[in-house]
């Protein structure tokens, strides 16, 4: 007597249905991951810039020289920045200055710039630099007191870096009530 064993498998429709469900879950998960990655990139860039600005102020007060945080390429902060002791006093990086830090370009898609309404000589960050005099106050290259802000944007995420005439700086999420 012969026994017939029937092996039950999956039909093509069942396999396609499972693959479709997995694709849908992957799509939802990748969107959430992308937002999480953008948020992390934004927080890292904002914290790095704030730390560099605070280091510039502290170095200026301890060294007795002006210290400059400057965008690598004109006003394009997203291409990175450099922090240096301005030994020759011209507010621009040269061979006689001491380089303290150099930041690599920011991740693709991250924008770092002065907001459109932040104009005038006081917002030196719109001009591509933040200069602290030997007393730790932000000033323009002409010696006038300075204050201003930069916006960090990555996708839908937005943070703002503020600095005031006393040299205090803060970084905040644009959606929070204390970020105005």
SSE order and pairing:
Elements lengths: L11 H52 L3 E7 L2 E10 L12 E5 L7 E4 L15 E4 L5 E2 L8 E7 L2 E7 L5 E5 L7
Antiparallel strand pairs: 1-2, 1-5, 2-3, 4-7, 5-6, 7-8, 8-9
Brief digest:
The protein is of the alpha+beta class and 180 residues long. Helices cover 29% and strands 28% of the residues.
Task: Tell me about this structure.
The structure is a single chain. With 180 residues, the protein is of the alpha+beta class. It has one domain: minor pseudopilin epsh fold (3-Layer(bab) Sandwich), CATH 3.55.40.10. 29% of the residues lie in helices and 28% in strands. It is built from 1 helix and 9 strands, in the order αβββββββββ. The strands form 2 sheets. Strands 3-2-1-5-6 form a 5-stranded antiparallel β-sheet, with helices on one face. Strand 1 and strand 2 form a beta hairpin. The mean pLDDT is 86.
